[in-house]
Amino acid sequence: MGQHQAWIPIDDCINSYISESEQSNHKYFKLWQSSFDLMTEMGLDFFYQIKSVKLPINPNFTVSLPSDCLKYSKVGVLNDAGEIIPLFYNDKLTTYAEFSPDRLQKTQDNTLFNLFQFNTPIWYNFWTGNSFTTLYGMPSGAPFVGNFKVDNAAGVILLGENISYDYIMLEYVATPQQDQQYYVPIQFKEAFKAGLAWMDIRSIPSSRRGNLGDKRDRKHDFYNQRRLAWSRYRPFHLEEAVEWSMRNTRLTVKI
Prior knowledge:
By secondary structure, this protein is of the alpha+beta class.
């Protein structure tokens, strides 16, 4: 596959390295697996695929995490504009009886004071020039949508009883799948190939292939290429630095 605008498929990087190192295609699967360790090493793991799914809420007010979920970025519900309104993270929610059908009954004590049973006044804190509004899509002080806590070990999202929806919108970073395509910025192509060259022999005993000097040289070349790639990806422009300095410099007048 070819370049996609300012991005290049990792397939192109792998095949380019295989061709330059004069190896056969049977090495492709090993190099493909190494590519995702390499993306983490280069700080590019945020280019993994981001998924957005609509998940049903279980009767005991929990939501099962997808099996390919690495880390979540948003948990919420939809508004009338198609935006995800986030739930509030509540680390006080207990994981006790999280798989029990009557989880709420087992984890509530009605003798204690509940802060969420009272409505608070709605107020708006941002002036647009014409009217007051809010910066985050909901008025400050409005009754919240709900609260949640994530138990990654158990693979569930715990919800408070306040939520009145039958679904949850979840955005998350998905585990890489072999039948899907992944892209990295074109500036990282050489760094990617240098990283593959290093990882290709990194764990092989020196008695078989690649001595310690070769491993050291390939590692050094990778980190140098990574540094160059980041400088090309986010170049330093003197004009931008001067403009930033002028915006953030405070003039003091001595009287």
